[in-house]
Design a protein that fits this description.
Elements lengths: L1 H39 L6 H17 L2 H26 L7 H15 L7 H30 L3 H22 L31 H18 L1 H11 L1 H6 L4 H28 L11 H11 L7 H20 L5 H35 L1
């Protein structure tokens, strides 16, 4: 009987946790429809027709046929890695806004390692994966160490590391023998370094499977291991964690390193599976910043990052078809923004609830 009650309680809690993200998606669609009506000249009485048009185009643009489904998975894959990377940092009470730079360093490491000749795919691909993990992890260790040792703000440090990573990639591409002269790009990586594609008609590849496995493994680490317990304890209450014998400084560095390693892995997988070379970058790719949105929508649950990444990937994938149907692609960004604003209100409500609870405890005590 007790076991049945636990199962029911678990299902109820799961549904409660899903309620807010699902509501945020519905609200974002509700708002976006008004802009569709404005762009296509619909009357206010044609609201449901505009809603139908929007949903139909998004679904058709993302899942219209096998090729479109596979192309959508190309958008989903990097968001999955950066979403999980940000979720780990959030769980530990950190804001790793540097996942963009860590992802970029993962790209660079894969572009360099992928040029090594004469290797078997069984050696070359794992080497690229290891390189991405090390590059991202070491890059994230810097703001993590500064936060743990000196208490400096990881947001500011990691933002600066993003731009250092960007210009470091440009330096390698434009000023070293690795880049192709006068072409502002690195050579195409060897065939042995490229990830297996699902279809010759699409760039979708086994990187998606690696990302899903990564989300599952991180979820297991956070929920089933001592490391995960310590990371969550530091995120929930640093002072209580230290009182219980958990090192706050060690876990801050550890969380940043794991977060950066996953972002770097995402960059390596993206290059090995999709880009196959890196170029002179005029600006950041944006996957790290979009990963923040994925993590927030998933409520920092690594498994929840899978459907959240799919949602944002679907929106990105359908943007071209929206334009072809006289709907501005900015509608995609509008939907994403409303989702994040709506999800953020949940965190604000919880913050004031906790503040009120602590005040009541102090008064009663």
């Amino acid at each position: 009987m007790k076991k049945d009650n636990k199962i029911v309680s678990g299902i109820v809690n799961a549904l409660k946790s899903l309620a807010f993200p699902m509501a945020s998606v519905l609200v974002s669609l509700f708002v976006a429809v008004f802009f569709v009506m404005w762009s296509k000249g619909y009357a206010i009485t044609q609201y449901f027709q505009a809603l139908t048009d929007l949903i139909t185009i998004i679904v058709k643009g993302s899942f219209g046929d096998k090729t479109k489904i596979l192309d959508t998975m190309v958008f989903v894959t990097p968001l999955l890695f950066t979403g999980v990377a940000n979720a780990i940092a959030f769980k530990t009470g950190l804001f790793n806004i540097g996942t963009e730079g860590q992802f970029t360093l993962g790209l660079l490491s894969a572009a360099v390692i992928g040029l090594i000749p004469g290797l078997s795919p069984w050696i070359h691909v794992p080497l690229i994966i290891l390189g991405g993990i090390l590059a991202g992890g070491l890059w994230a260790a810097v703001p993590g160490f500064l936060k743990a040792k000196f208490g400096t703000n990881e947001v500011i440090n990691s933002i600066m590391m993003n731009y250092i990573a960007l210009y470091f990639v440009n330096l390698i591409v434009l000023r070293t023998p690795i880049g192709i002269p006068n072409k502002a790009t690195t050579p195409i990586i060897k065939k042995s370094a490229q990830l297996i594609q699902f279809s010759p008609r699409s760039n979708a590849n086994i990187g998606l499977i690696i990302g899903i496995l990564c989300a599952v493994i991180v979820y297991w680490i956070l929920s089933k291991t001592v490391w995960g317990y310590e990371l969550r304890a530091v995120g929930t209450s640093p002072l209580a964690a230290e009182y219980g014998g958990i090192s706050k400084a060690k876990n801050i560095v550890l969380a940043m390193v794991i977060s950066g390693a996953i972002a770097g892995l995402g960059g390596a997988v993206h290059l090995a599976g999709f880009m196959h070379s890196t170029t002179d970058m005029m600006g950041t790719l944006g996957y790290g910043f979009d990963g923040i949105s994925v993590a927030l929508l998933a409520k920092n649950n690594p498994i929840g990052c899978i459907p959240a990444a799919v949602l944002f990937g679907v929106l990105d994938s359908s943007s071209r078809l929206l334009q072809l149907n006289s709907i501005p692609k900015e509608i995609v960004y509008l939907i994403q923004a409303v989702v994040i604003i709506f999800v953020s209100t949940d965190y604000i409500v919880k913050y004031f609830k906790n503040k009120k609870r602590k005040k009541e405890v102090a008064i009663n005590g």
